[in-house]
């Protein structure tokens, strides 16, 4: 985790004791670098305002 990601992580965690630190770290990294979080647990990332992809919901052709 670089300095920019850590600053974003701290901002996301501010006053959010119900948030898992690991989820916030992933969300912060995704936000700083313009990435999408791939996870089955979409609800865990809903309040982070980050793009989420659930690979288990995607239809395989």
Which descriptors apply to this entry?
61 residues, mainly alpha, Rossmann fold, globular, single chain
3D architecture notes:
With 61 residues, the chain is mostly helical. The protein has one domain (3-53): 3-Layer(aba) Sandwich (Rossmann fold), CATH 3.40.50. Helix content is 39%, strand content 7%. The protein has helices at 3-13, 21-33; strands at residues 37-38, 52-53. Strands 1-2 form a two-stranded parallel sheet. Helix 1 packs across helix 2.
Uncertain residue ranges: none
- Average pLDDT works out at 89
Instruction: Specify Rg, calculated over alpha carbons.
Output: 12 Å
Q: Which band does the percent of strand residues land in?
A: 5-15%
The side-by-side strand order for the widest beta sheet comes to 1-2
The rough form would be described as globular
Brief overview:
The chain is built from 2 helices and 2 strands. A two-stranded parallel sheet has the order 1-2.
Map the helices and strands:
Blueprint (H helix, E strand, L loop, with lengths): L2 H11 L7 H13 L3 E2 L13 E2 L8
Helix pairs in contact: 1-2
């Amino acid at each position: 985790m670089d300095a920019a990601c850590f600053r974003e992580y701290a901002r996301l965690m501010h006053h959010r004791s119900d948030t898992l630190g690991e989820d916030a770290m992933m969300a912060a990294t995704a936000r700083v670098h313009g990435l999408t979080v791939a996870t089955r647990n979409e609800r865990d990332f809903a309040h982070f305002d980050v793009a989420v992809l659930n690979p288990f919901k995607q239809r395989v052709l």
